[in-house]
Design brief:
The complex is a heterodimer. By secondary structure, chain A is an alpha+beta fold. Chain A is about 30% helix and about 25% strand. The termini of chain B are far apart. Classes of the chains: A alpha+beta, B alpha+beta.
């Protein structure tokens, strides 16, 4: 691996201040944790083309408010959609693939399935490497790594020359069965490094993903190569900008799996940071929810275009490796894959639906009301933004219902024209359906909830979990507006809206562990086999060695082992923890029992003494962040703005409750004593609605905790 | 109906029903044991109303889309008065259970609330083997259904929650891979239970009467959308003919003749003139014929139409009795998938005359289905897979490559898992140069897949098509290259027909090579911009010779476009009769 030589200046003495920056499509969110646990946040417009500018503006803003020199931060933590954008916009590197003779089209043919049924005019996404840059070399391995055909090194040299002539910036190497024997890939990698210009990004599949299934491994390796140079350039430039601005500190980036990684490692393995933003929010929910005594939560992150859900059980995240990047909306559990590019690395299992504040409302040919997936986006945005948008959106409905401030959002920075919301809804819903305005807006609000319910169900009931056993942990710009109503639909009893909910991905970064994990195909049957526990332990220890080498030593290093198991014949694994240490015959029944329990929980049954296969082993190393493990509630707004816009306004809560004069308060107005709804909690970065038959309190960690009355039938 | 439908609640219920069907499908896929279910996803799940009409169907296999109705009706009539809470039914027979073919087994559970049937959780899955003449139970040479394996009328797999002790043993004794079949039935059961829980939760939330009322409203809504879509089509009578190559070494073409009538907001598909049923396992029961017509018409309706029974109301399907599309007992049906593909292709062929911009030229005609079986270390193995797929070009773009047939959204099986699990080595999996039908937009390239056998005494069979009747082009586009089957072994090379019916046994080192047909082109190839032809040459999709012969594109010695030579050649070619 070639690594960047850019190093950011590290200050000598730790200050205890850590700062995080999450770059979104519209806003760059900044959050800083002081040594005493105080949270300070900022929101600045994203600066496409020079993302560092917004980060620097935000850092300067926060540092100014803390009266802290910008070189005093110990760590700068970062989440960004740079990698995803490179794929979505087709702006990755000019990438080649070197593969086994006879198989250059594996990448293009994929797994055949398409994500859209009944569409004769469907077009597949173009492969990230065009056919002319997919080159074959004579060689062949068998499934146990045995050499069936020797590597033709002369042919490899010819390929290397051809790649040099094509002026490729990145090369992925993937041979059949290389997960079982890396020798041929290593030999090719060496020849390419000798031949191609320095700075060419080269990676091999046995290193990126040593796991069986050629399309997924090839695609993952190609994605890694395709985004490698882009991520590398971006991070180097960011380092330089930070250094030139005098910002000190170690720079780390969020991985899709929910752990932070030093950026020189990210540069080697960029495919691990593809879903960094969504991961940060979920990790924050796990950490802060856990500290506040809520270990079992479903996160609900509602933004302008989509809503995302993820499940946290016993404080632990659920990850998946059945993921595609660039496929638009990600339903982790979606049956129909093929819309994006397979990326088989651990990703926090996030389910997404196309319903957000900007989702457009319309009536279809059959007379039904539809919400999304089309979105008015940030530009022109909802009708009430008065920026040229005329379609009614979910946000317009929330303005009409009185939930959103009728004059301005984000502390006055986004002016609102409520008249335009009313007109848009009257035009697109009231007239065609012959409904009055409040009724129509209430309908839109509920419909958005019904779409979002599917995201929550996809991470809970679809996996054998009952949402009623969980609290709903809401964040994102619109999370607090819909959370209580959504929870009610799902029979959930509690909603938590954390401090900094509107910049929560940035907040989550502050509570994320440093993490490295490595896996390998194992491919053995669980049975009375003396060698099995010994071989398992040996593989785990080998993976652990790699993890230690990459993560560095720390007294707080925590190592865990996980295994992917399935019944023989099944095609999908369930992941279970393996107790770390010497494994022996006695360990095997425990492993079987843990798998059977997980199978029962996920699918409702087990298969008795049916053979079980151990498909993959994974070692994970984590180091917890330095400093406070939770937010100290300062009892004041985290952003220094004035209080709410009004003391009360009329808000509509459905036909049962009607239009109610509702107090408008700030988070600071709430205390540990439950206060009865209805309430509107207005903050700089978001609004939280507490319906009439609920209560709300502010706990010791600054969370708004809404308790729902038991379900009333409608 | 006096009931006043709230369009908002309607959408809420639509989302809810679909979520239940999707959850069922996900659980079935993740717990299934056989590659054909878990990787190829040849299964479907449905949440049905109390009348057995599907409210929602998991997004898996389009050709199953209309398949539940007839089977559910059969079951409900046969068991009227004898359906109890906790019962689970199983069945597969085309004649005794209105099924599809014997490998497709239904597992169906009534959903009770307050001692009333409020709905059904229904699943269908293609099982890897149900006995019969050949492993995989898809023999082309069967002449009656009794040779095709285990026939199950609808029987109770569970009685009031109590598992039947006998049935699993009967099934296990009659199939070649009892672990896989019983494992997949278990997966279907898990999905049915999830469906039952899902609908029950909705009933508890909204009340049974409301759920029922919105089920009715959803069917009506889907019907409205379907009628609105049909109303936009130009009225007329559109006819289309196509063929399946036929069976055996001396194949006799099997004729499909479709008269598609679009009259205002209704569509009738009349198959009068189609070949009589044949003495081979490719006959379709009428339920399967209907199911495929529904799927084809569904695909010109737009994405929002719910996959519930209501949308089929304006569609009428007529097929002659005892024809290959409406077979009668005891006609065999084991390998009838190919017939389903041709049904869909014919509907698109007829629609091309009405709405040429909304369909593609003909594609590779569905999956090629090779199967290999034998014994290794005393254990039987059966490996079969669906090789797909190629589409024809459309008015807007070149044909897609590496895609499933429209009727069956299946996945391939990873080469590395095939080689780890079976004595087979895949030696090539790639696109075949020059096989795409020339056109202004080019048809997709055919796909080559080569299998090297690594054991002796391996039984081999294959079902393919499009050797005699390659995929047609549209609007002046040319047909794609025909498919081919080649067997190479110690005895030399042997060209196989599309659907061999004689027994074939392979030994170590023998190689089977399949080339799938290329898709048809759209528009005159001589109008294709030379730059796009050159792009195809850079990607090895088109050879220099093919570029000249099919597209009239000539390169100069340095590899760039020879403009005068191309202009002159194209002018000459345009004058030639095509």
């Amino acid at each position: 691996m070639k690594t960047s030589s850019c190093i950011i200046g590290v200050t000598d003495m730790a200050s205890g201040y850590r700062i995080a920056a999450d770059i979104g499509g519209t806003f760059t969110d900044i959050a800083c944790l002081s040594p005493d646990g105080t949270l300070t946040t900022a929101k600045t417009p994203t600066t496409p083309g020079d993302y560092a500018a917004a980060i620097l503006t935000g850092i300067a803003d926060v540092a100014g408010r803390l009266d802290l020199p910008v070189d005093r931060f110990d760590e700068i933590l970062h989440a960004s959609t740079i990698a995803t954008n490179a794929i979505l916009e087709g702006k990755g590197a000019r990438t080649a693939l070197v593969t086994t003779e006879g198989f250059r089209d594996v990448l293009e043919m994929r797994r055949i399935r398409v994500p859209r049924l009944y569409e004769p005019l469907y077009r597949k996404p173009a492969p990230l490497v065009p056919r002319r840059l997919r080159l074959e070399v004579p060689e062949r391995l068998g499934p146990r790594g045995e050499v069936i055909r020797e590597l033709d090194t002369e042919a490899v040299r010819a390929v290397a020359d051809a790649l040099a002539a094509h002026e490729v910036e990145a090369v992925a190497i993937c041979f059949l069965h290389s997960y079982a024997n890396p020798q041929h890939e290593m030999a090719v990698e060496q020849i390419l490094r000798e031949t191609l210009p320095e700075g060419t990004f080269i990676c091999a599949s046995h290193d990126v993903l040593p796991e069986i299934r050629e399309y997924e491994r090839t695609s993952t390796t190609v994605v890694n190569a395709y985004i490698g140079p882009v991520v590398s350039r971006y991070l180097c430039a960011l380092q330089i900008r930070l250094r030139d601005a005098g910002v000190g500190g170690r720079l780390l980036m969020m991985q899709s799996s929910g752990g932070l990684l030093d950026i020189d490692r990210v540069i080697e393995r960029p495919a691990t940071v593809v879903e960094s933003g969504p991961a940060a929010g979920v990790v924050g929910a796990a950490r802060l929810g856990g500290k506040a005594g809520h270990g079992d939560v479903i996160t609900f992150d509602m933004g302008g275009t989509t809503a995302k859900a993820s499940l946290i059980e016993g404080g632990r995240l659920v990850s998946t490796d059945e993921y595609e990047v660039g496929g638009g909306i990600s339903m982790s559990s979606a049956l129909a894959k093929g819309g994006g590019y397979a990326l088989r690395l651990p990703v926090i299992d996030v389910s997404e639906v196309g319903a957000g504040g900007g989702s457009i409302v319309r009536i279809d040919a059959g007379g039904a009301l539809k919400v999304g997936p089309d979105s008015a986006g940030a530009v022109p945005g909802p009708a009430c933004y008065d920026a040229g948008g005329t379609d009614a959106t979910v946000t317009d409905a929330n303005v009409v219902l009185g939930y959103l401030n009728p004059t301005a959002l984000a502390g006055g920075s986004v002016p609102i024209n409520a008249r335009l919301s009313r007109e848009a809804i009257e035009r697109s819903v009231c007239e065609p359906l012959d409904r009055d305005l409040l009724d129509a807006a209430w309908g839109i609000h509920r419909l958005a909830n019904s779409a979002m319910m599917r995201a929550v169900k996809a991470v809970s009931t679809y996996r054998g979990r009952d949402p009623r056993d969980f609290a709903l942990f809401a964040f994102g710009g619109n999370g607090g507006i819909h959370a209580a109503a959504l929870a009610r639909e799902l029979g959930m009893a509690k909603v938590i809206v954390p401090p900094g909910a509107g910049v929560f991905s940035a907040v989550g970064l502050l509570f994320t562990d440093h993490e490295v994990s490595r896996s390998n195909t194992f491919g053995r049957t669980l049975g009375p086999d003396r060698a099995l526990p010994v071989d398992m332990a040996a593989t785990f220890k080998r993976l652990e060695d790699t993890v230690r080498a990459e993560l560095g030593t720390s007294p707080q290093l925590r190592l865990t082992w996980r295994a992917g198991l399935r019944y023989r014949g099944q095609g999908f694994e369930l992941s279970i923890d393996i107790e770390r240490g010497e494994l022996d015959d006695a360990s095997l029944p425990a492993i079987r029992a843990a798998f059977e329990a997980e199978h029962r929980r996920s699918y409702g049954h087990d298969l008795g003494d049916h053979a079980i296969e151990i498909v993959t082993l994974r070692a994970i190393g984590t180091i917890p962040p330095n400093g406070p493990q939770t937010i100290r509630d300062a009892g004041k707004p985290v952003v220094g703005t004035s209080g709410p816009s009004a003391e009360a306004r009329a808000a509509y809560f459905g036909p049962d409750h009607g239009l109610l004069e509702t107090p408008v308060v700030t988070r600071a107005h709430l205390s540990e004593a439950p206060r009865a709804g209805p309430l509107i909690v207005e903050e700089y970065e978001g609004t939280t609605i507490v319906p009439p038959d609920c209560t709300a309190l502010r706990d010791a960690h600054g969370n708004i905790v809404i308790a729902l009355a038991s379900r009333a039938s409608q | 109906m006096s009931f006043n439908v709230d369009p908002i609640l309607l959408e809420v219920f639509k989302n809810g029903f679909e979520a239940v069907a999707d959850e069922m499908a996900l659980i079935l896929m993740r717990t299934a044991h056989s590659p054909i279910v878990r990787d190829a996803m040849d299964f479907s799940t449905a949440l049905c109303d109390a009348q057995g009409e599907n409210l929602a169907q998991g997004l898996t296999t389009p050709m199953h889309l209309g398949s539940f109705r007839d089977a559910m009706r059969h079951l409900m009539e046969e068991y009227a008065g004898d359906i109890h809470d906790g019962d689970v039914f199983i069945g597969n027979d085309p004649y005794l259970a209105s099924g599809q073919h014997l490998p497709d087994i239904y597992v169906v559970k009534p959903i009770f609330h307050d001692a009333q049937i409020e709905g059904w959780a229904a699943t269908i899955a293609h099982h890897v083997d149900v006995g019969g003449l050949v492993p995989g139970s898809n023999s082309l040479s069967a002449v009656e259904i009794h040779q095709e394996g285990l026939r199950l009328p609808f029987l109770k797999l569970r009685r009031a929650g109590v598992p039947d002790p006998v049935l699993p043993r009967v099934i296990a004794a009659n199939v070649r891979t009892p672990d896989l079949v019983l494992g997949d039935i278990e997966a279907q059961l898990a999905a049915a239970m999830a469906g039952s829980r899902g609908l029950t939760a909705m009933i508890e939330r909204y009340g049974a009467a409301t759920v029922r009322a919105y089920g009715v409203a959803l069917h009506d809504y889907a019907e409205r959308l379907a009628r609105a879509a049909f109303r936009e089509l130009p009225d007329g009578v559109y006819t289309f003919e196509d063929h399946i190559d036929g069976l055996g070494d001396d194949p006799k073409p099997i004729l499909f003749r479709l008269t598609l009538t679009i009259a205002d907001d209704e569509v009738t598909a009349d198959w009068a003139g189609t070949s009589p049923q044949v003495a081979g396992g490719i006959n379709a029961p009428i339920s399967f014929c209907k199911s495929n017509v529904y799927a084809a018409l569904r695909s010109i309706m737009g994405a929002d139409v719910p996959n519930c029974h209501g949308y089929t109301r304006p569609i009428h399907v007529i097929a002659p009795e005892s024809s290959v599309l409406n077979c009668s007992y005891p006609a065999p049906c084991g390998a009838r998938g190919i017939t389903g593909y041709r049904i869909v292709d014919c509907v698109f062929g007829a629609l091309a005359a009405a709405v040429p911009d909304r369909v593609s030229a003909d594609g590779a005609g569905g999956s090629t289905l090779p199967s290999f079986s034998g014994r290794i270390d005393g254990t039987t193995f059966v490996f079969s897979e669906c090789v797909m797929g190629v589409w024809g070009a459309t008015s807007g773009h070149d044909g897609q490559e590496g895609v499933p047939h429209m009727a069956s959204n299946q996945a391939n099986v990873p080469i590395e898992t095939i080689e780890a699990d079976y004595p087979i080595r895949i030696e090539r999996y790639s696109l075949a140069q020059d096989t795409g039908g020339p056109g202004f937009n080019r048809g997709g390239l055919g796909i080559v897949r080569e299998y090297r056998v690594l054991a002796d005494d391996v039984y081999f069979g294959v079902r393919s098509d499009k050797i005699a009747y390659p995929p047609h082009g549209l609007n002046g586009g040319s047909p794609g290259a025909p498919a081919s089957n080649l067997l190479s072994g110690s005895g030399g090379d042997q060209v196989l027909p599309a659907m061999p019916t004689r027994a074939m046994t392979l030994g170590t080192g023998d190689l089977y090579r399949h080339v799938m047909a290329g898709g048809g082109g759209f528009g005159n190839p001589l109008d294709r911009e030379p730059e796009r032809v050159i792009e195809d040459m850079l990607d090895d999709r088109v050879s220099e010779a093919h570029a000249r012969e099919a597209y009239g594109v000539v390169l100069s010695l340095n590899g760039t476009l020879d403009i005068p030579a191309t202009t002159a050649l194209r002018a000459r070619m345009k004058d030639l009769p095509r």
